[in-house]
Amino acid sequence: MSPVSIQVSQGGRIVIPAEMRQKMGINIGDQVLLSWSDETHELRIATRKQRLQSAVKLVKQHTIASESVVDELIRERRQAASDE
């Protein structure tokens, strides 16, 4: 999607165009998360669902595919209990 020019209104308000809201899954009353990048000087808008999906993806990159995190934690706790 190409960049869209919008105007900032009184109080710093901006309107996210309908097409972008639809693509992002933003509905009336939803909260969005804003973040500023000092590196790129960009304001980013994301939904909580998008941030959660990004976090899950990041965690999956750093876990063993054959074992769930819960199973690993249970195994570690049982090992620690038997060592006591």
What does this structure look like?
The protein has a two-stranded antiparallel ribbon. 0% of the residues are buried. The chain contains three helices and two strands. The chain has one domain (10-83). The chain has 84 residues and is of the alpha+beta class. A hairpin with a 4-residue loop joins strand 1 (32-37) and strand 2 (42-47). It is elongated, with a radius of gyration of 21 Å.
Key descriptive features of the protein:
about 80 residues
Quick summary:
The chain is an alpha+beta fold and 84 residues long. Helices cover 43% and strands 14% of the residues.
> What is the makeup of the main sheet?
2 strands, antiparallel
Query: Biggest sheet: strands side by side, in what order?
Result: 1-2
Please give the domain count. 1
Instruction: Work out the helix count.
Output: 3
Strand tally, please?
A: 2
Topology:
Blueprint: H1 18-24, E1 32-37, E2 42-47, H2 48-61, H3 69-83
Antiparallel strand pairs: 1-2
